[in-house]
């Protein structure tokens, strides 16, 4: 059984990004994987910002990255870039902290004008960390996300493509080549 760490990089307690991350963690678990959700905003700020990797909570968060087969990075888009909170955490990881891992980068934001923040901002960092496979990133526009109480609804224009990206991530976890359908290459 493969293991996945879903990391949400939003500093907000009411974050739609965090809701999407939780949604994905549940879907991965339902498909037979062990998925855990790491909310970076819950880590001790002083230890995180001072790069205190000896702090027990920071050390455990970094160790979790090392123990899993796959990583989902969920970030809000601020000023056409991924969150500073996520950047601070990624900077704590060893130089090749994603070696051997499949990684799914995704972001939320108010405008499709920021969609390239994933490919031009986050993807190079993920690649430099040595990821085995970085699947197609995905951008969710805020107006396609509706939060009611504890429930998250994703508009059909985004839910289908998100499911497709998640399927590609799961294939990458299993080491299945891109384009494989039901045991044969498409």
UniProtKB/TrEMBL annotation:
Keywords: Flavoprotein, FMN, Oxidoreductase. Gene3D superfamilies: 3.40.50.360. It comes from the Bacteria. Residues 3-143 form the NADPH-dependent FMN reductase-like domain. This is NADPH-dependent FMN reductase. The lineage of its organism: Bacteria, Bacillati, Actinomycetota, Actinomycetes, Pseudonocardiales.
């Amino acid at each position: 059984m493969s293991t996945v760490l879903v990391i949400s990089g939003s500093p907000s307690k009411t974050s739609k990004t965090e809701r999407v991350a939780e949604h994905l963690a549940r879907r991965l678990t339902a498909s037979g994987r062990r998925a855990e959700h790491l909310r970076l905003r819950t880590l001790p700020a002083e230890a995180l910002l001072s790069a205190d990797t000896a702090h027990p909570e920071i050390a455990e968060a970094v160790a979790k990255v090392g123990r899993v087969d796959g990583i989902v990075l969920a970030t809000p888009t601020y000023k056409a870039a991924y969150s500073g909170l996520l950047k601070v955490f990624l900077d704590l990881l060893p130089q090749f902290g994603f070696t051997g891992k499949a990684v799914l980068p995704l972001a939320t934001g108010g405008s499709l004008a920021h969609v390239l923040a994933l490919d031009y901002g986050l993807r190079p960092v993920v690649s430099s960390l040595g990821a085995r496979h970085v699947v197609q990133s995905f951008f969710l526009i805020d107006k396609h996300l509706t939060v009611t109480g504890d429930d998250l609804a994703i508009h059909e224009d985004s839910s289908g493509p998100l499911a497709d990206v998640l399927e590609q991530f799961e294939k990458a976890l299993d080491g299945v080549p891109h384009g494989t359908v039901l045991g044969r290459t498409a």
